[in-house]
Amino acid sequence: MIIKPDRYLIFVYGTLKTGQPNHYVIKDPDNGEADFVGYAETVDKWPLVIASLYNVPYLLHKPHFGKKITGEIWSVDINMRNKMDDLESHPRFYRRFEIPVLLDDHGVRSPRHIVARDRHKYYSFHKCPGPIGVAYSL
């Protein structure tokens, strides 16, 4: 697939992936243009944590820790990127940064932007306010 010069490559790894709760944002043409590029895995390991009352996945900006993360790469226009930024509260809550990924065709590509969380709060303990064992699909 040839990527248009006015597009941004975005790696999604959580609720924006196909079949996940926020994927509707990518599929809604009123939000802008988005084309699926392929499935990918990060070249390096990253910590992916599931946190908050809503079991939200966060990719921490701590390279070389954790596991390689699988996700999808989407080519999006500026309108879609802005809509995704609004959803992810960039730059207040999440921050975009560049990392290399390995596409399923085994070619290394570096998206211009990947949405990741780099301001995760650390805790000394955890108390679950709701039922334990609630499943979350990544």
Automatic annotation (TrEMBL):
Signal peptide feature range: none
Active-site residues per Swiss-Prot or TrEMBL entry: E88 (proton acceptor)
Alphabetized Pfam families for the sequence: GGACT
Record-linked SUPFAM superfamilies: Gamma-glutamyl cyclotransferase-like
Domain annotation Gamma-glutamylcyclotransferase AIG2-like: ranges: 10-106
Any one Gene Ontology cellular component term annotated for this protein: cytosol
Top-level taxon of origin: Eukaryota
InterPro entries registered for this protein in UniProt: AIG2-like_dom (IPR009288), GGACT (IPR039126), GGCT-like (IPR013024), GGCT-like_sf (IPR036568)
Single GO MF descriptor: gamma-glutamylaminecyclotransferase activity
Family named by the database record: Belongs to the gamma-glutamylcyclotransferase family.
Protein name: Gamma-glutamylcyclotransferase family protein
Organism: Oppiella nova
